[in-house]
Amino acid sequence: MSDSFRKVIAETEERHSELLKAIKEVEHAPDALVAQRRRVAELQVQVEESVSKAEKQAEKPRKEKRSTSSPFKLPFLLKRTNSKGKEKELDIPSPYVESTQEEEKERQRQAEIDRSLREAQGQRACLEDKVKEYEHLRSKLEALYDLIFNGPTPGFPAEDHLEQQVAAARVIQERVQATLDAEKRAFECIYKAEKAMRECRSKIKDALQFAATSLFASGRSAQEREASAIHSAHILARQVPVLIREARQLSPDVKPIEDMTLVREAPSRADTPDGDAFYGKLKTIASEVSRVHTQLSEERQTAITRVSAARTTVENAESTVDHYRKELATLRQTIYEEVAEKVREQMREQRYSTGEEYFIDAPPSYEYEAPSMFVQTLTPSPLVIPNKHFGQFTDSSSPVSSSSQSTFNWNSSPASTVNTRRPRPLPRPPGT
């Protein structure tokens, strides 16, 4: 273990502790988010069921109301007054009341489920933010570990071996992810080709019907529709080989399709004037289109299977990478803490050897000491003092002279001057 390695750990120890503390606060978020998403899905299903049930319950009162007698439809006819002036309600038909009560209960239940769903969705949003924060903190911690442990780490072969396993697992993950992306794109091409061939098959079928109509009833309208259908089928058929060629470039498991006459040329009555021969030619083209469409349908199902298998492989590769990453992060954290503890121990030993821990300056004294130069730093100033006992005056005959102000004797003792306070003037008598 080199000195530079110890120095880097000593410099990043505080940052490492902060990241671990922050991660510990939000490490529960991923599992909680999975459970919360499951709860939201369950509540959504309950809401759909409640809405459907409420609609059915709402239909029953309508049927009951249509079959209710006229007095019940008028609310003021439902009450009568007895001799004492008290109102007494008539008996209400029970089917309508029961259906209305059931509808009201279902509406209340639906409102409660909606409220629970909104609360669950709000909690899910908070957990999603915490998961993002957790992933961000984990990426920062991994970046810190990569800065310290990237490459060979002298003295820790287990960390180097696990780091190589993580790198190999990531290479495999990238490879299978590329395979999955290619299979998805190939499936899209096959799906487009199958859709085009399905429409082409429908157009050829229409052309056969128009050709059969032309055999028994001559007319330009049927032949024009027939030519339009053949032209549309020809355009659609020409798209299929291009899409299949692209799919085969993306995935070698895609099989080639049969060559179709409709791709090379569009049949025309000008080339085949005989109606029966032209109809037979259209039937041959229709059989080719049908076979290719069947082949593309099977190829689409096979492509779906390949995409599903590739997605499973990617999920397994991702779980393997996550497993190795967690093991590597745990090992690096253990190594980091061990080295940090050794660095702190070495620093304590170094301070002990130099005596820094035992020869420490004494703390400052907090006892109060009166400053000796306090009085001497003051500059004397003339004061007018009305009371004689506060100091010695130059004129002993009168404390206050009308012609000149008395001067305080600053040569008195410091103890008598420190506590001297200027007196407050006496209040003036009323009426003066």
Folded structure, characterized:
Residues 50-62, 102-116 have a biased composition (Basic and acidic residues). Keywords: Coiled coil. Residues 117-147, 307-334 form a coiled coil. The chain has nine helices and two strands, in the order αααββαααααα. It has 432 residues and is mainly alpha-helical. The chain has two domains: 3-78 and 88-150; 169-352, f41 fragment of flagellin, N-terminal domain. The chain has a two-stranded antiparallel ribbon with strand order 1-2. Strand 1 (79-81) and strand 2 form a beta hairpin. It starts with a helix and ends in a 14-residue tail after the last helix.
β-strand percent reads under 5%
The proportion of residues forming helix, as a percent range, comes to 55-70%
Chain-averaged pLDDT: 78
Number of E strands: 2
Please tally the helical runs, counting DSSP H or I stretches of 4 or more residues.
9
Task: Please list the strands of the largest sheet in the order they lie side by side.
Answer: 1-2
Shape assignment: flat
What class do helices, strands and sheet pairing give?
mainly alpha
What name does the CATH topology of the largest domain carry? f41 fragment of flagellin, N-terminal domain
Number of domains: 2
**For the report, how would you describe the main beta sheet?**
2 strands, antiparallel
CATH architecture of the largest domain: Up-down Bundle
Element order: H for helix, E for strand: HHHEEHHHHHH
User: What is the CA-based Rg, rounded?
Assistant: 49 Å
Query: Tell me, what is the CATH class of the largest domain?
Result: Mainly Alpha
